[in-house]
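Please, structure for the following, as C-alpha cells.
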Amino acid sequence: MSDLTPTSERPGLHVSKPSPSDPATASAVCHCGASATAKGDSQVKALVDGYTANHGPAHSQNGR
C-alpha cells in the first residue's frame, strides 16, 4: 500500500484509527498551502470539520 499522507504535491485529508482503543490521527494539506495535524478523536473530528468547511472541497464550492 502506498503512503497516503497528503503532501503539497498531493493535497488531501488522511485519517487513521488502527483500532477502537487507539486514538485517531489525521493530517491535512490543502492546495492553498494550509496544513494541519491532529491526534485524538475529538481533535481529529475538529480537523476534518475545519478542512471540509474551509479547505479542500470548500475551495471549489466558493470559487477560491
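The radius of gyration is 12 Å. The beta strands are 12-16, 25-29, 35-39.
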